[in-house]
């Protein structure tokens, strides 16, 4: 039987240092949950081989990104390494209005901004099991130089220092287990009384 109680969509944030597995967890959530939609960020990062504009990111020039900031197009935006990333307000609002949940793959800077704009967000931080394992994963990609990896490790320590600003903290020592926990958090947050906008009317029909 379908749930007769309607609810509004929620903003579900995943953050982690590079290499901790955030993207893998996000892919697993999206593949298993039809009510969840990924927010496609705008970025000034150059497009990579195999990427599709509008699917992986909305690729923008620096001038275009500046204009979007000026127009108030972003819920949040931040510098990540040498590029900028931003969450498009119109896309998120449209998805939430349709009653769907939005998954945001953003860092702690963006999460802080988003919390100021909309305090009703669910924030999940993903930790690596150890810094040695994080470095092993980064080196395993085979795409970055020693210098770049060293920079990522330095940034990772800074990002991890913000763990206490999040509602939930998961240690990703196994991707399947971590994704299952992330899904359990999402399902529990969907059932919060404050988010179930049709609950009051439903209870009235029960008790008259």
From TrEMBL:
CDD domains: GMPK
Residues that, per the record, bind ATP: 16-23
GO terms assigned for molecular function: ATP binding; GMP kinase activity
Cellular component terms per the entry's GO annotation: cytosol
EC number in record: 2.7.4.8
Residue ranges constituting the Guanylate kinase-like domain according to the UniProt record: 9-187
Keyword set, alphabetical order: ATP-binding, Cytoplasm, Kinase, Nucleotide-binding, Transferase
Catalytic activity: GMP + ATP = GDP + ADP
Entry's transmembrane regions: none
Major site of localization recorded for this protein: cytoplasm
Enzyme superclass (EC): transferase
PROSITE patterns found in the cross-reference section: GUANYLATE_KINASE_1, GUANYLATE_KINASE_2
Subcellular location: Cytoplasm
Gene3D superfamilies (alphabetical): Guanylate Kinase phosphate binding domain (3.30.63.10), P-loop containing nucleotide triphosphate hydrolases (3.40.50.300)
SUPFAM superfamilies attached to this UniProt entry: P-loop containing nucleoside triphosphate hydrolases
Protein function: Essential for recycling GMP and indirectly, cGMP.
Protein known as: Guanylate kinase
Protein's gene: gmk
């Amino acid at each position: 039987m379908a749930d007769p109680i309607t609810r509004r969509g929620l903003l579900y944030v995943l953050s982690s240092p590079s290499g901790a597995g955030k993207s893998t967890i996000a892919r697993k959530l999206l593949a298993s949950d039809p009510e969840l939609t990924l927010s496609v960020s705008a970025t000034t990062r150059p497009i990579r081989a195999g990427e599709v504009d509008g699917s992986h990111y909305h690729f923008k020039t620096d001038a275009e990104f500046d204009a979007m900031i000026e127009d108030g197009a972003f819920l949040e935006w931040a510098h990540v390494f040498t590029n900028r990333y931003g969450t498009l307000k119109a896309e998120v609002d449209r998805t939430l209005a349709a009653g769907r949940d939005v998954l945001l793959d953003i860092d702690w800077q963006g999460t802080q901004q988003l919390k100021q704009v909309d305090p009703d967000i669910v924030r999940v931080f993903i930790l690596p099991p150890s810094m040695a394992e994080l470095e092993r994963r980064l080196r395993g990609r085979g795409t970055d130089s020693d210098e770049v990896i060293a920079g990522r490790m330095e940034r990772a320590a800074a990002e991890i220092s913000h763990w206490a600003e999040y509602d939930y903290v998961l240690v990703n020592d196994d991707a399947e287990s971590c994704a299952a926990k992330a899904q359990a958090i999402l399902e529990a947050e969907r059932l919060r009384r404050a988010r179930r906008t049709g609950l009051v009317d439903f209870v009235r029909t029960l008790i008259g």
